[in-house]
Amino acid sequence: MIIAIDGPAASGKGTLGKRLAEHFGFAHLDTGLLYRAVARVLMERSIPLTDRDAAAQAAQNLDVSHLEDDSRLRGAAMGEAASVVSAYQPVRDALLAFQRQFGAQEPGAVLDGRDIGTVVCPDAEVKLFITAAPEERARRRHRELLSRGEQAEYETILLDIRRRDERDMSRSTAPLKPAADAMTLDTTHLDADGTFRAALDLVERKRPAKVGR
Ligand code: CDP
Ligand code: CDP
């Protein structure tokens, strides 16, 4: 059983993915961390993000353990850098097998990202496309950064989010878009609890008998 969650930056994919995974006893993978980790390898070695070969090599050799505990992967700069290297096809190819293996776990897995329903797990039983207005997403990210004690300007975050969305949607390889069979959930006026309840309703409507521990 695979639950695929896609959507733009700060729409609440990760928060929802974690909640759904806990609810069903599934494993959860935030696939954005993989692209962030590739970007970090280049940045740490002072290799320009435009070096496609180096990015592909970093993706092939990536240590995928403990990414969720690595605070250096969080933050706006790494998200922006991830969006640059994620547009390279060989980078995406190198990360595909790991994501598919993750999705094959029993009793199930939740993966969130940009292309889970379209490319990584096109046969996922449940596909959710999570959206929210850019202004609301910027407010959420702003709040998140301030609560971690980081300096952040709302207007700068909004510009970053718009630019990243545009790049993710317009790239030729695995662009951000809902799969044809995805259910879209607009969370502009929903908090994390409301989003979880609405998503659970969609999941259970889709797989009434088979979902659950
Ligand atoms: O994974 P993604 O970038 O899509 O978003 P996230 O990291 O799950 O959520 C970004 C921030 O928005 C977090 O601080 C969440 O707690 C918050 N959030 C929210 O305020 N309302 C929601 N409906 C979902 C998330
Ligand atoms: O948390 P947030 O939504 O801000 O970003 P993320 O999910 O960590 O993703 C960072 C960047 O990685 C995105 O802007 C995408 O360019 C890329 N990404 C991707 O191309 N495909 C995925 N499945 C996940 C992330």
- The number of helices is 9
Structural class: alpha/beta
- Spatial ordering of strands, largest sheet: 2-3-1-4-5
Task: Catalogue the unreliable spans.
Answer: none
- CATH fold label: Rossmann fold
- Briefly, what CATH class? Alpha Beta
Q: Radius of gyration over alpha carbons?
A: 17 Å
Q: What fraction of the residues are assigned to beta strands by DSSP?
A: 5-15%
Shape: globular
Give the number of domains.
1
GO molecular function, one term: dCMP kinase activity
Main location: cytoplasm
Family: Belongs to the cytidylate kinase family. Type 1 subfamily.
Catalytic activity: dCMP + ATP = dCDP + ADP; CMP + ATP = CDP + ADP
Structural commentary:
This protein is an alpha/beta fold and 213 residues long. It has a single domain, classed as P-loop containing nucleotide triphosphate hydrolases (Rossmann fold). The protein is 52% helix and 11% strand. It contains 9 helices and 5 strands; from the N terminus they run E-H-E-H-H-H-H-E-H-E-H-H-E-H. It has helices at 13-24, 32-44, 52-60, 76-85, 89-103, 116-120, 134-147, 154-170, 192-206, and strands spanning 2-6, 27-30, 109-113, 126-131, 183-186. Strands 2-3-1-4-5 form a 5-stranded parallel β-sheet, with helices on both faces. Helix 2 (32-44) packs across helix 4, helix 3 (52-60) runs parallel beside helix 5 (89-103) and helix 4 (76-85) runs parallel beside helix 8 (154-170). The radius of gyration is 17 Å and the shape is globular. It starts with a strand and ends in a 7-residue tail after the last helix. The mean pLDDT is 94. The protein binds cytidine-5'-diphosphate (2 copies). One cytidine-5'-diphosphate (CDP) binds next to helix 2, helix 4 and helix 8.
